[in-house]
Design a protein that fits this description.
about 130 residues, alpha+beta, about 25% helix, Enamine deaminase RidA (YjgF/YER057c/UK114 family), RutC-like_sf, deaminase activity, YjgF/YER057c/UK114
Length: about 130
């Protein structure tokens, strides 16, 4: 897989790439959006803690498919306020810190989720 960052575009705003190429014969893994819910049903406070939990849940899903953060090619994330972007981005950057090539990434501000305490939701596509 390789990155797509055309010189005709401005560079990415953060630690992501504009696109990724998936070679023929690659197996794709797509997660559902992961909300910040622990196995016991509790939710941590704050966007960074919630995003960290979302990425921990994603890691468990990917591990079941024998994949990891290095296989993620795209992230779609949703936060309920612009103020939560920094916390989300800190958690995202920590999750992908050891990856040679970051994924493509989209972050959207939404009006809310199914429970008012949820501030973040994250889904990924991985290729192996």
């Amino acid at each position: 897989m390789h990155s797509l960052n055309p010189t005709s575009l401005p560079p990415p705003f953060a630690h992501y790439v504009h696109g990724r190429v998936v070679p023929e014969g690659t197996r794709l893994i797509m997660t559902s959006g992961q909300l910040p819910v622990r196995k016991d049903g509790s939710t941590p406070d704050g966007a960074e803690a919630q995003a960290t939990l979302c990425f921990e849940n994603i890691a468990a899903i990917l591990a079941q498919a024998q994949a990891g953060a290095e296989h993620v090619i795209r992230v779609n994330a949703f936060v309920t306020e612009r103020a939560h972007m920094a916390g989300y981005m800190a958690a995202r950057d920590a999750y992908f810190a050891d990856c040679a090539t970051p994924p493509a990434s989209t972050l959207v501000i939404v009006t809310g989720f199914t429970r008012p305490e949820f501030l973040v939701e994250v889904e990924v596509t991985a290729a192996i």
